[in-house]
Records
---
Amino acid sequence: MKFDICPICKSNDTIELYSSTVDVKKLSFTYVKTSDSGKTFRSVKCLNCSHVFCSPLPKNLYKNYEDVVDKKYLHYVESISESARIILPMIKRYIPKGKILDVGCATGEFLSVARDFGYTVEGLELSKWSSDITKSKKIKVHRCLLRSMVYKNEEKYDVITLFGVIEHFEKPREEMECISKLLRPGGLVVVWTGDVSSISSKILKHNWWYWQGQHIQYFSSRSLNLLGKNYGLKHVTTKIFPFAGTYGLVENSLSRYRIKSFLVMFLKPLFLLKAKWIIYLPGEMLWFATKST
Ligand SMILES: [Zn+2]
């Protein structure tokens, strides 16, 4: 379709990868995984920068996040804190102290650990339920879009983190520009998202775990580098996100697959040996960039 324009490089040199299979009424915005979790909107690949995106975009998607109540997420908060304890020393190597903004901070686990590491912390979160939990930890939360933060002229941050957030962005260029404006020169941005050009994505095709109805942007390292570069964010390094996997988290993540019970049979004994494994899955990009001074 000639009207598909890449939201990263603006090219219209695109091909359709998948037609829409999603039922908007069944679209999940929580951690609860079902066989419907893998259904997606119509997805298009940009042949110029390798970015994959949903087109047309569903309307008013952000509105859904405001009402999200995700009690399932609370089962996994210790895993998220464990990942944070691995990621924060990596951040410390670049920015040893200062002020962190976590965009899409959910119930504030990362920020809580970041505070223990000596940082001043703030979050941005649309869900009232999640932001109330974060506030109960005495953490400042902005319940607004990034552009409102820029408009309010919030002071500059030393580090901005986005974990499992950028794949939900409706206008990634506008949103990355806001992030750049909120970051001080020399500041660090850290993004965790899937790499649609990774080996895991290529092998699993539409069964790759990132294909979910709530995801509307599928970055490659190339398209993420390009997006950052447009707004003065220079790529520094890409690591693999450290998943602190418990049996419950892994079992839930596999719920979308028909062969779940078969996989669980093999994995369960591993969790009898150790309750939590740090899992490094190919394609789980942990992307670091700094703002030009
Ligand atoms: Zn493109």
---
Amino acid sequence: MTRSNATAAERMVSFCQDLIRIPSPTGKEGALANRIIDEMKDLGYDEVRKDEAGNVIGTLRATDPSRPSLLFTAHMDQVSPGDLSRWEYDPFGGESADGWIHGRGASDTKGAIATQVHLPTALASHDLEHGDLHVAQVVVEEVAGLGSRILLDHLRPDYAIMGEATTNELSNGNRGRTLVRMRFPGESVHASISQRDQVALYRAASFLLGLADLPMKQGVMGCSHAVPTRGATNLLDDNVTPQSFDLSIDWRSVPGETPEEILERLASIMADGDEAWIPPFELSTYIGRTYQLEYAQPPYWIDPHDPFVVAAQQALSAYWKRDVPVQPWRFTTDCGLFTERGVPILGFSPCEAKYAHTPVDRVSIDLMIEAWDAYPALIEALSTLPSHRS
Ligand SMILES: [Zn+2]
């Protein structure tokens, strides 16, 4: 690495520390967004803007407009640090130690934000022919992908790279997640005289035995998976049967499995009077707008032999002189929202899933520099792919 590259890498790393020092819980990403905008302006982006959801988008204009446009994206929101006594490092200290940057969100996805936002310095000593390059850092990923949904209303790149944790490997799929609420009716009667058919919990029990045996759909990434999570009654007394019993089902879907199909499958094991629905909910962004959403994140899949995946894999393998595996994520990401709207997307990030949402949240400085340093090789390869507009 040259001296100017080393200085640029140091600046990228200290930007990552800054990002961790600015708390950005879901719906409160405003201060972080402003910090990213300042950095993008300093780095010489041709255009820097915020959209109606509060997503931040920086654009480097095409050096050759016939080439495909590319998007690098990650999310600004971070989950709560939880029990502070379990942390060795201050979750909002952005401390650097032993080759790591520590803190909440380092691995999900502030480490990726720092490398992506510093794209201009990675490209500085290269003379590449590329289409428009967008870097978009979105709000509200941790709850139903609101930021990506709004982003895709106004930005449709030819190809996209998602910064969710891949340890500098490539990710090409993930199961979707649909939350289903259920209600089993009963009658509120004194426990001493209750009849079997009045007991909501017996109805729920017979449904649950059916759910445990319900064949799951086989997909390219294995089977879908459904499991009961939260259950509740509104009772205050232990000696009456509840009017109803409410249950949540967490359903991890495979490609081709829609929310409508999930509700039909559940209906096949429900009794008359049982209800199931996907609950709508409201979310407010830091901008102050409120949106109606449903708890349904689509699954994501791109064939590992797709030319986009092959181009990325070959470019990184050749640049690093090692194999770069392609495999699906275990967790749900916003990628399904992109493929649903016709934007091919691939996961590539220095962040590591094993640290995400834990009290040892951290990102490797070496992996960050490695990813950032490889962006020109990746962009050069992806710029040879066809543009959907041509
Ligand atoms: Zn994430």
